[in-house]
Automatic annotation (TrEMBL):
PANTHER family: PRE-MRNA SPLICING FACTOR (PTHR11246), PRE-MRNA-PROCESSING FACTOR 6 (PTHR11246:SF1). Keywords: Repeat. It holds the Pfam family TPR_16. This is Pre-mRNA processing factor 6. It comes from Channa striata (Snakehead murrel). The keyword Cell membrane does not apply. One of its GO terms (biological process) is spliceosomal tri-snRNP complex assembly. The keyword Repeat applies. GO terms for cellular component: catalytic step 2 spliceosome; U4/U6 x U5 tri-snRNP complex.
């Protein structure tokens, strides 16, 4: 797998494809190989080949949530909303009580401008996964502004120590321009889960807008020491083939620059 990744990041696409094909002859139940195969095809804009790779992979690895997400996002990217929705419904049937799949279903509808459907799905999601921090955190910002505080209190009752919920509260205070409180909750979040890259990136963006140079440098330094590995926003940059040689501080700045605090 590392050989495939190396050829891919070096831009040797044909070599990467050949190695991937060879590896899959021996390890066809290894989802990451199917994911790489599909992503390489997507990068080359071969959408049909990418779709085939994800579908083949899911026959062998039906419980690989990242594979389901890649297939759904491919369909969304090519404008097939109905197909993307159906894929996620099928994924949830095969993988019940999976917060990540519910979250993607909610976000799919929200991105399509179908906020009512997103809200209905979120209610179902929280029934099936009542203690999921990622779902409660998202639920806070699905609410209209006047109701967000109430929803955040509900979220904290259910998931008091979940970093995603703590991060949602920090964002809520930030959106209300309560700077001191927002900083307190950002600090609480990165202390409880220093591996969550999204928290560091949001914290850094916050300090770029409201903090001193010293406060900005402190967040950057602490993030570099923590070397986070998780978070949707973080992994979108850190795992991108073009960023394979970038250091933590560079990834932090890159992720922060793409965050639009319109919540």
């Amino acid at each position: 797998m590392k050989s495939v990744k190396l050829e891919w990041v070096l831009g040797n696409i044909e070599a990467a494809q050949e190695l991937c094909t060879e590896a899959l002859k021996h390890y066809e139940d290894f989802p990451k190989l199917w994911m790489m195969r599909g992503q390489i095809e997507e990068q080359c804009e071969y959408m049909d080949k990418a779709r085939d790779a994800y579908n083949q992979g899911l026959k062998k690895c039906p419980h690989s949530v990242p594979l389901w997400l890649l297939l759904s996002r491919l369909e969304e990217r090519v404008g097939q909303l109905t197909r993307a929705r159906a894929i996620l419904e099928k994924a949830r049937l095969k993988n019940p009580q999976c917060p990540e799949l519910w979250l993607e279903s909610v976000r799919l509808e929200f991105r399509a401008g179908l906020k009512n459907i997103a809200n209905t799905l979120m209610a179902k999601a929280l029934q099936e996964c009542p203690n999921s921090g990622i779902l409660w955190a998202e639920a806070v910002f699905l609410e209209a502004r006047p109701q967000r505080k109430t929803k955040s209190v509900d979220a904290l009752k259910k998931c008091e120590h979940d970093p995603h919920v703590l991060l949602a509260v920090a964002k809520l205070f930030w959106s209300e321009r309560k700077i001191t409180k927002a900083r307190e909750w950002f600090l609480r979040t990165v202390k409880i889960e220093p591996d969550l890259g999204d928290a560091w990136a949001l914290f850094y963006k916050f300090e770029l807008q409201h903090g001193t140079e010293e406060q900005q440098a402190e967040v950057r330094k602490r993030c570099e020491n923590a070397e986070p590995r998780h978070g949707d926003l973080w992994c979108a940059e850190s795992k991108h083939v073009l960023n394979w040689q970038k250091k933590t501080g560079e990834i932090l700045a890159q992720v922060a620059s793409k965050i639009k605090n319109t919540f």
